[in-house]
Amino acid sequence: MIELIATAESLDQARQLVDIGVDYLVVGEKDYGLRLPGYLTFEEIQAAVDYAHQAGKKVIVAANAILHNDKIKTARAFLKQVQATGADLLMVGDTGLIQILKDSEYRMPYIYDAAVLVTSPGQVNFWAKYGAVASLVAREVPYAELVDMAQAAQIPLIVQTYGASCIHQSGRLLLDNYFNFIGKDTEELEGRQLFLSEPNKPDTHYSVYQDSHGTHIFANNDLDLIQHLDQLTEIGINHWYNDGVLCPGQDFVDINQLFVEARDLIAQGLWHEDLAQAYDEKLAALHPANRELSTGFFLYAKDKVQ
Fold first, then answer.
1. Which of 10, 196, 237, 304 could in theory staple to 300 by disulfide, Cβ–Cβ 3.0 to 4.6 A?
2. Which InterPro entries does the annotation name (predicted)?
3. pLDDT band at 262 (very low <50, low <70, confident <90, very high)
4. Shortest CA distance to 37 belongs to which of 59, 71, 11?
5. Does the structure show a pLDDT above 90 at 191?
């Protein structure tokens, strides 16, 4: 069965995503969630869980940040709060948090998400021994490698099919530091769409995003694999992940509606090349105008990604 996973920037958006047929919501708060489109309180997370469960859907709480000592010290209290919401899964990449999850008092099923590190079935299967029930694959893994990974992986693989790709993270709050240096109020950062350009390459626009875990730089192009969904299902990758961190509001809901329809058409055997092209055009029309789309590393040959 094909299952669609999507981030939610708010309780309202979470409900909309459930209503259109998204199978798993990814929500979180600012201390443990990394690069999220929005933060929810624990009360809102519980409300999202209740709403999702009424529709037979599930909720993943993002705890995918790299945790320093201060966060590890409060991790047990955090996990208790997550458990109290009734959430179904965690999304985890930090080994310190996985160590805590071994304790029966805090144990929860989790999706392993260590970003660029998840490039082989060996990595996936190792963490399956320590409680991982699925793994998010690095965005840099091309389809040719996914074929082999899918055959050897002992737990389901999750592939990002839409959204932004982070290419660099600094633990420093670089935007705050820069604005303080030039004497500007950091409140001016709110709601701004900030980019970096390479020297002498004005067309480049690497998006800059800041949260409590530091400063994050995103690739020029966002992922769009809607024309290649049938290829994923052919090799048994039936968990698709859509990230709305740089696609806010109703447009992200409408993009997920396209994936829901594509999922259902593929399941019915009605998906074909012309339809895939038409859906790709619809997605492009909903995508933020200041961002481009590409298939990322998906179509690369094995020897092109080292």
1. 304
2. Peptidase_U32, RNA/ubiquinone_mod_enzymes
3. very high
4. 11
5. no
Distances (CA, A) of 67 to 71, 126, 141: 6, 21, 25
For residue 90, give both structure tokens. Answer: 């965690």
Contact 27/61 with Cβ under 8 angstroms? yes
Express as a percent the part of the chain with pLDDT over 70: 83
**Residue ranges covered by each domain of the chain:** 3-165+219-294, 170-215
List the CATH code of the domain at 3-165+219-294. Answer: 3.20.20.110
Query: Which of 119, 296, 121, 156 has the alpha carbon at shortest distance from 236?
Result: 156
8 Å CB contact between 16 and 256: no
Residue 258 tokens, joined: 């396209």
The answer to whether the CB of 49 falls within 8 A of the CB of 86 is yes
Q: Which two tokens stand for residue 74?
A: 């409060």
Contact 71, 41 (CB under 8 A): no
CA distances from 62 to 160, 197, 211 (A): 15, 30, 14
Q: What DSSP assignment string belongs to 97-141?
A: HHHHHTSTTT---EEE--GGG--SHHHHHHHHTTTEEEEEPPTT-
Q: What is residue 181's predicted lDDT score, i.e. its pLDDT?
A: 57
Q: How far is CA 163 from the centre of its chain?
A: 8
Against a cut of 0.85, is the pTM above it?
yes
Please give the helix or strand (H or E) that residue 273 lies within, else none.
helix 273-286
User: Residue 54: is it exposed, middle or buried by C-beta count within 10 angstroms (0-12/13-18/19+)?
Assistant: exposed
